[in-house]
Structures are given as structure tokens and as C-alpha cells.
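=== Structure Prediction Worksheet ===
Name of assembly: unnamed complex
Input type: mixed (protein and possibly other molecules)
Chain count: four
Listed entries:
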Amino acid sequence: MTRVAVVGATGYAGAELVRILAGHPEVELSMLTSRQHSGVRFSDVYPAMTGRVDHKCETYSIDSISGKADFVFIALPHKLPMSLVPDLVNRGKRVVDLSADFRFLDPKLYEVHYQTHTAPELLKKSVYGLPEIYGERIKDAVIIGNPGCYPTSVLLPLIPLIHEDLIDTDTLIADSKSGASGAGRALSLSTHYCEVNGSFKAYKVAIHRHNPEMDDILTRETQKPVHITFVPHLVPMTRGMQTTLYTRLKKLVDLETLYDCFQNFYKNRPFIRIRTDGKPADTLHVKGTNFCDIGLHLDMENKRLILTSAIDNLVKGAAGQAVQNMNIMLGLDETAGLTAVPFPL
Amino acid sequence: MTRVAVVGATGYAGAELVRILAGHPEVELSMLTSRQHSGVRFSDVYPAMTGRVDHKCETYSIDSISGKADFVFIALPHKLPMSLVPDLVNRGKRVVDLSADFRFLDPKLYEVHYQTHTAPELLKKSVYGLPEIYGERIKDAVIIGNPGCYPTSVLLPLIPLIHEDLIDTDTLIADSKSGASGAGRALSLSTHYCEVNGSFKAYKVAIHRHNPEMDDILTRETQKPVHITFVPHLVPMTRGMQTTLYTRLKKLVDLETLYDCFQNFYKNRPFIRIRTDGKPADTLHVKGTNFCDIGLHLDMENKRLILTSAIDNLVKGAAGQAVQNMNIMLGLDETAGLTAVPFPL
Amino acid sequence: MTRVAVVGATGYAGAELVRILAGHPEVELSMLTSRQHSGVRFSDVYPAMTGRVDHKCETYSIDSISGKADFVFIALPHKLPMSLVPDLVNRGKRVVDLSADFRFLDPKLYEVHYQTHTAPELLKKSVYGLPEIYGERIKDAVIIGNPGCYPTSVLLPLIPLIHEDLIDTDTLIADSKSGASGAGRALSLSTHYCEVNGSFKAYKVAIHRHNPEMDDILTRETQKPVHITFVPHLVPMTRGMQTTLYTRLKKLVDLETLYDCFQNFYKNRPFIRIRTDGKPADTLHVKGTNFCDIGLHLDMENKRLILTSAIDNLVKGAAGQAVQNMNIMLGLDETAGLTAVPFPL
Amino acid sequence: MTRVAVVGATGYAGAELVRILAGHPEVELSMLTSRQHSGVRFSDVYPAMTGRVDHKCETYSIDSISGKADFVFIALPHKLPMSLVPDLVNRGKRVVDLSADFRFLDPKLYEVHYQTHTAPELLKKSVYGLPEIYGERIKDAVIIGNPGCYPTSVLLPLIPLIHEDLIDTDTLIADSKSGASGAGRALSLSTHYCEVNGSFKAYKVAIHRHNPEMDDILTRETQKPVHITFVPHLVPMTRGMQTTLYTRLKKLVDLETLYDCFQNFYKNRPFIRIRTDGKPADTLHVKGTNFCDIGLHLDMENKRLILTSAIDNLVKGAAGQAVQNMNIMLGLDETAGLTAVPFPL
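=== Predicted Assembly ===
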């Protein structure tokens, strides 16, 4: 059984990885690292896990990871992963990194929005871990740059339309809304309970770092430069991300044609659900799951196709997608460990 | 002291009217009507009001309203007001109607989206009660069609830009988000606690009835046909509405110029607050108040101006704006009854 | 594979049963009934389930249930189950009923608080489905009266203390707090979003129907009449129930002794977690799980032992416990279908 | 017009003081202090206040306070106020302190639960600022120790019963629940949004510092030692505190008698509302107000009187009560600045 490590296990994305991997039928969760909680049982950090994940958290070193794990998930803040991954790869490990460090095609683009890239040669080899789009390349990848939550919710609805050349890519707009867990477990006034409850607001309007990440992939898929207008918002809830996409149709099509387009494109993709009842995607329907629900809506008078997508930002937007990538890399069923029946509420 | 009636006092908009009017220094709340709670004290329907508003609710008739009130607020579902207003006007009453019945310029447009209009001659005389835009005409109006909450949050940021001819009105998009109180007190699964909590979703995508209301006013202001793309969403919170507007600039301008434009346009308008610190409007900052906060944000690469607005849907989006209209009609200070200091949280 | 039916599948407890049973490795979910949604796919009622539970809901008859299922869960309002169960038992079915109809030892007590019991002879044969206490009798039971959510959260902490004769049973107090899902999916003003959000309140103070249910079991265990003081409260959250119990110690004991008492009593009981770190039980730690967490706290100056318990009202308080009972009845592992790793948040 | 200072204006209690005082008709808010935000406009810390409270925050010194204010509110963490108050009193200022420093009768009791008291002689002169009980002494007080939020919600329902000798004071239990604003604006994991949302839990069970404060006053009123069992809980909401009190009646009385007792005791006390409809107190009904609602409920079989109280923890539990105390001290109407009509939701 493959032994897997979660490096950075006590942040929200890391803890969600632990949840999924501890219930995964085909891998063994062999190492949890946490600098802040070193020596402490994971279940003392997250008492929900008592009796289920009582591993002690450790600090990591290349040696300790290499000795204890065959496969490595990294859930550290960006910059740290790129200092760690080269050694892991040299030791023959395969890695899914949840930070931005291995998501970009072009080190320059990364450097404009983050910092100097210290492993640019590996960046070229890494694969953007959106399995519904890049599944074939993920199979043999050594390093996966696991997509950001916002890009996942934006790209999955757009790419089929781009492939079918149905929409104008010069006027794309993504209006996204995320639950507070997306901001992580680090304390800040903006995620203090009383500042979030009863508040709805945009933030980092048109300047969020996930914007160039989307642009990079959209440009690759479109094969000409794309710059999407992107505005994220914070919703008073814990989990869930909903994106409303505004596109302009190149030609008039009806909903049936669009349903066909999406259903063909995502045929046999187990985590994409196209709503064909005309209803918009709802975060409540994907909570705790790896699904991405997509709704389609026409505003014919303006020749617009409006799309709504919903994911759980911690699952399909982070840890679930990371495990989906691992499954593909290990030749397992893509859904292994991700098959829990959704909660009705 | 002017005696005022609230017809339909026990719905959420009606109750908010009662709250504001009971604390208004220059009018007397003389009549509360409620079919459902006839004979019951208002404070038994809303125990929060115990000791402050203990009036008995009554059923209404033209005679009873005429005898007890000089000024009438109607907070009934659309269709009922247009059957009631002609008689009230004949008896010399002035009316602010919170339904859609007197909001449209053109009966035809109303009839497409609602039903046959039974008082079309009065519709022509009514004034759309957006005081920052139509204040002069409101002064002498007999009937005010009080704006919908979504149109208020959309029109206040757009109209200055239209007047200055700064934006293209063919590609307008409004992505709005509302707290659950906007759906009123009537029971439905969509406002059942467990269906709203933890859920974020769009609804009535591009088919909401506030869309033609916005179009009607935008067309009037632009003097050519405008059809905005409008998508409302439901937020898990009680009060508050946030709208993000996507516009395309006709020419490049900087933020300072835009701040000047807005500050000039809304000079001496006490309820408009332009954020000049670059931060987006936040519903938490306007909760319980009649303010409309507006933020401005440039996406220069796409030549877009993005606007964020925040109102309390029950105050500036309904009852507060209704009282503001009354104040203007009665020659009172526009802010009378609406001056409470905002809550910090 | 045992075929199981859920009668009343579209209420919240029924839907939670469906969730658990659809993921259960050893039974087949063969029938879902719903009068209100007859002919409709379950996933159209709960879109979260799309692709996972697409069964059509049907109306039920004794014949249809008997033909399609070997084991029956009833999640109907009380009174209906007692009209249904006799025929099912006659046809050789085993039943877990989630209503109050088969919970009481004594028909008289049931009749005082509910209505005339129409199957009193079966009531005598039914077993109160609290597996940690009555596991042995559950194995061979034909009818299980599945405990109420409040009684579950009250009885599990108290019974070990009663068995050890550590507490005075004349002065018991249970102060319980429940999320809104406990009130079910039926619409009412008291579960309307805006009436729950921001509200915390008691209800049915000392007159809730779960009070006699607790008394009945406490009396059985104590072997003298017990009447606990019980006050339920409504919390603005979807899932979760927390009970704080105030007991008077018969003799002074220290926490270590108490921890030993609980750990011995619940040895090998997989769903009871005793917190030995001094921290109180928290609903967040049991969300979506079948765990009952219990905290112990001394107020020595008053010679009191205070206990805190936390369950998910829909799982250990309803559907999870029902499945746990089924597992025991069918000779399966008690935890089958109930082993998902808890969510960290 | 009396000039008032708020020392520590940017914490939640301080900001709520600012809100109330900025709208107070008879005092002038002349100074706001904040170490953290010195030099910053209050409305930049709380943008809700833009246009209403644009004062610059300053650091404080005895001289600056003395020069700018006649009356001083202190909303600093305990320990700081007792170092500040002696000098202020020497300069002839009157002070309401919202910390614990001046609440206790006995410095020893304070020192057991807090630290060495550095102004014990002033402690003797200070008055516990519960106006409904100590109004006469408050009139002439120089220093008010403003009550804690929990003690306010516990003492107001109990004291009338103690005065009438209706209840046993040896077996008192208070089970209290508070919104998250009670924990203040300082960041901590326990008030991080995702840790509070969906969570209900007790904390500091029987060891909260408000417990000795309650005991001190209950002992004074009972004239024999009282030690109440007190358990606070955290509710996922911003504002509001609900306490359920369990008392044992010394003799059987009916509800009518109890209503009379409370209504007589609190006759002409504008902020106490006794619910005589049998319903429990609800935090939603007091949100944003200085009311304390009290419900009475009998559990005759156990000879218990159960009381429910609800306050807004930031208003009657802190800033509102502080202003009520000031009003009394200055000879103003007790309700000045506290008369806003409650919100219906």
C-alpha cells in the first residue's frame, strides 16, 4: 500500500487532505507534519478526529519524508514548496503541491505575482492538476501543481466552450464567492467571526493572484492571450465556492445544444455534474464532496451565456482534487477515497 | 403632526417601516394594518417592539385609512396597491407604495412582467422614488413608486457614469447578492433555515422582475434602449445587499477623476458614501442604515470600471428610502428619522 | 444483501437515512417512499444526491414494502408508524421506527403525551434503541423504537453515573441546545431563516415531549421514579446538539475516578468518546458523525458534576443511531456504514 | 453639554459606547482613545461610522483626558483602569469603568480571581452599576464598576426572587449562552470564523471569572454566602446573550403571583420587560437595545422556577448599561440615548 505524507497537515487544506486520506481504501497515511504542532497528536489539534487520526505531528526534513512516504502532498504556503520539491523528486518521490509554486507554465508570470522561482526547471515539468482537462498528462507526472480553488471553479465551466469556439474570450467575467475557510486557519481580522457574520463583500477586486493563474490556462487553451476580469467575494459560511461567469456567445445556440456540448466534453468524468433542469449551481449541493456542479443560463437579449458553478473550496478546490490527482498518478480508480454520499443538508 | 398609516405592517418591509416611523420625530404612526394579524398587537407579532409599538393591527378599508391618516405607506404584494391607491388619492392622501405597481413609466412594460395595470392614468403621474436622482419631482408627487432593492443598488452607482457619458451602456452587467430578508416573511422552502444556511446560489438568472425595472430607468437616463444583464444571488445572512457592477469605460480615466465625478454628482446627498480608499463596499457597514456605500475599482487591462455597492435591503432598499421620500414630500429634512448612528458590528 | 426501505425518505431524518444507507457496504437501498414527492427522483428533491441516489420516490403500501424490502426504517410523524408496523411485523419484517410510537415502556405514558396507542401489544415487545445500553436486547429485537435526539444526548452521559450510584437522581437538570434541522423540513415561522439567524432562545420549557421519554428510561435504570428538569433551546446552526447536565454527587470523587467510570462503562463502544483533557464537548467535533462526545467538569464547591455532551442530532440523534441498531440486528459490524472520517471543520 | 471621553474606543465594547454616545442628545463625544489606532480616524477603523464619527483616535494621558472630558468611560482590559482611575478622580472626573477592576466589594475576592488591586481604597467607594438595583447609589457615585455581561443577565432575574425570599439560594444554576462579540475584537482561534460557525460549546465550565462577581452580589443581596453554579457557552451569532436559570421554590406559587412580584419590583424600570405570555426570552428581541427580557416558567413536579433572560451583550451587557449609569449620574433621563426602536429582525 502506498505510504503518503501530508506536509503542512494542520492548516485547513492539510487537515482536509488528512480527512480524505485517512478514509482512502488504497493508501496509508504514514506521516503528518506541522511545525506549529510538532509532537502533538493530530486529534488534539482537530478533536473531531479523535480515535480516527491520532498520529503525532512531526517537523519535516527531506530525510524523514523520504524514509516514511512514497507519495507526498505539500500544503504549505507558497515559496516553501519550491525549496522542498527538488530534493523529493531527486529521491524518487511523486508530489502534489497545493501551493501556487508549480501551477504556472512560465516562471516569469509566477515571478511577477509571487517571487523569484527557485526551481524553474521543475516548473517546466510540472503538470497543472485539473484532471478533467489534463488527465492524460497527470498519469505520468512527477509534480502536480494543484489548481487554486477559484481557477477550478472558473476553468471547468469555460474550457468546454473555448474548445467548441462558442464564446468570445476577450470579454470574460468571473464573479466568484467563497466561504471563509478559503482564507485558511491563520488568524486575521478579516476572518474574525464578528467581521464575517452578516457581512458580504468583494476583496482584491481585479488584483487577486488567482487571476493570472486563470489567464495562464485560458491562454493556453485559447491559444491567444486572454485576460479574464475576476472579482472574488467573501460569503458568511464555512465551506463552498460559487462562481457566476458572464460570456458572450459567438453565435446563437439553444440550451439543448449547450447541454450536449458539456455532457460530451465531460463524458465519464465522475465529478462534473451538469444541471439540465435550468437551476443554478448551489454550494449546499456539493458541500463535503469533490463535485463541480455547473448550471447554464441564457440571456438571449444580450447574446450572453451565463454559467454558474459550485464546488467545495476545500475538496474539489483543494484537497479532493489533490487526491483525485494522486489516484490518477497511481493508476487507481479516479474516485477512490472520494465516494462518500453527499449530505442532504 | 402628520398622521401616517402603514398598510401591510407585519411583513418584513412593513415592520421595518413601523420601526423607522415609530422613532420619527415629526410624524405620528396612527394606523397599522394587517389582514393576518387583525386585532393583535403589533408587539405580539414582533415581541422586540414590546413597550415601543403596542398598536393593535387592523384590517383596512378606504374609509378607515382616510379617517386615520394623512399619509399612507403601502407594503402589500403587487396588484393590491393599484386597486387601493386611486381611492386614496381621490380622498387627498399622498402615498408611497413599496410594490412594483407604480414604478414603471410604461404600463405595457409593467403588464409584460406583472399583470394588467388597473390604474394606468395614475401610473403616469407617479414618480420613481429614488431621491438622489428624482428628488425635485418627488417634492410635489402624490404617488411614489418606491424602488426595488436590487434596482436601488444598481442604479445609484450607474447613473452618475451615464450622465457623464463615461461608460458603454450596451454591455452592463450587475451581479447582486441579497440577504434572506429580501424574500419576506412568507414561508417557503427556499427561505427555510437549513436550506439557506451554508448555501450560496444564484436564482432567477437573467429573468428577475427587477431587471425590466432597471432597464426602464436606465433607458430613461441614457435616452436609448438599455438592457442590463442581471443575476441575483441569495446570501446566508438576514440583512444586506451587495452588487458588483461590470462596466466598460468609453475612455481611460483614473480613479481620482472618477471619485470627483461621484462626489460632485452626489454632493450634499446625505445617504451616499463614496469609498475613496480603494476598498469595496461591505454590507456590514450599512446594516440598519439608509446609506448606500459605493466602491470604485479599475481593471485597466480590460478597460473596465468595476463598481461595488452595499445597502441594507430593508432600509435603503425599502423602508428607509420610503421614509426618505416622505420626508421630501412633506418638506421635512430628508434625513428625519434616519439618523441613527450605524452599528460597529 | 439485505434490502432496506426508508418509509418517509424526504424529511430531514429520512434523507439522512438515505445518505447513510446509500453508502452502506452491506445493505441495498431498495425502496424510498414519499407521499409528497411520489414519482419524483430523490435527487430532484435533494440535488446534492444527483448521480448517487437517483431512485424514484413512491407512495407506500404494506404490499409494496413487503415485496421490496427485508428491513424497514420508518421516518414518518408519530401516529402513522403504529398503524403500519403491525402488518410489517406480521409479514416477517424487522423495523426501526424513528418516531415516538415504540419508545415507551408503558402505553399509558405514551398516551398522556401523544395519543391513544393502537398497537400496545407490540409496544411491549419493542426495544428502546440505545445500543450502548440495550445492545444485547437489540440483537434479537423485531421492533426498535429509535430514541429521540434529546434523550440520546441526555441518557448517554447519565446512565453510567446512575449505574455506579454516583449521583442524586432527584435533582437532575438537562439544558439542551439543538440546531434547526431538528425541527425538520416542514415549514414554520420558527424555522424561517430570518427568525433563526441571530436568535437564541429556549422553547417548550419543561414541557417538551422528550421529557417523559427521558424520565421513562431514567426511571427504568434507577429503579425509582425520576423526573428530570429539561429545557431545550434552538441554536442558529443546521446540525448539532449540545446538552449540559447538572448533577449532584452523592460522594466526592475526582475526575480520574470519573474518567475511569466512563471508560469502563463504554469500553469497546465505538461511538462514545470521553474527553479526558478537561475540555467541553463541541458540536463541531461530531458534525456528520455518529459519535457522542462527553466532557466532565467538577464544581466542587457545590458538589456538582457537570457533564457536557455533543452529538449530530441527525446522525447519533436519529439516522445514524437507527443504522447502528440495524447493524446490530443483522449481526453486522456495529459501525458498518458509519465510519467516515469526521470533517475537521 | 457634558464632554465625554471613551478610553479604549476601538474594541467592541468601546465602539458600541461610541455608537451610543455619538447619538446621545445631551452629551458631546469629545475624545476617543486607542493605542493601536492612534492618529487614525475612528471611521477608518469602523467604516460603518463614516460621516458620523470621524474623530481621530488619540493615545491617552491623564492630562489629555482631563483637559478634554468631564466624564470618562474606560473600556480597557482589566488592570489598566485601576492605574488610571485614581488620577482621574483626583482631577474631579466621574468614571464608568467597563472592566472588572471596580466591580467587587472586597479587594480580596478581586485579587483571588484577577491580580493585586492597586487602588483598594477607591474600590470601596465605587458602586456596582446595575441601575435597576443600585440606582439610588449610582446617582452620587464617582466611580461605577460596570457589571459584566453574564452577571447582568443572571442578577436581574434572580434579585427580585431573593428579595421576596421565594427561592433557595443554595442550589442556583445559571446556564448562559453568548454571541461571539463577547470575546472582543482581539484575534484568537476560538473566535476565528470557521471555528465558531456550526459550533456550539461550553467553555470555562464553573471557572469563569464572572462567577465570583455574581457570587459577590448575590451574597450581598441574600446576606449569606451564595455560590451559584455557572456555565457559559458560545453561540454562533454576533450579538446576544441568553441565560436559563434553574431555581428551587421555597413554597409553591403560581405564575400570576410571580408576574406580580417582578412587575412590582421593576415598576417604572424602563429597560426590564417581563414576558407574561409564557414565552421564553429571545436574543432576537433585544438585539441592539438596552432591554433585558425575562421569561418565567414553572416545573411544578420538581418545584422549580425556571427563568430565561435575554440581553444584547454589548448594550445592556456593556455599553448601554454604562450610558444608563452615566445618565443617572448626570441627572438626565435614564433612557437618554437609549431609545431607538428595536429592529424587527
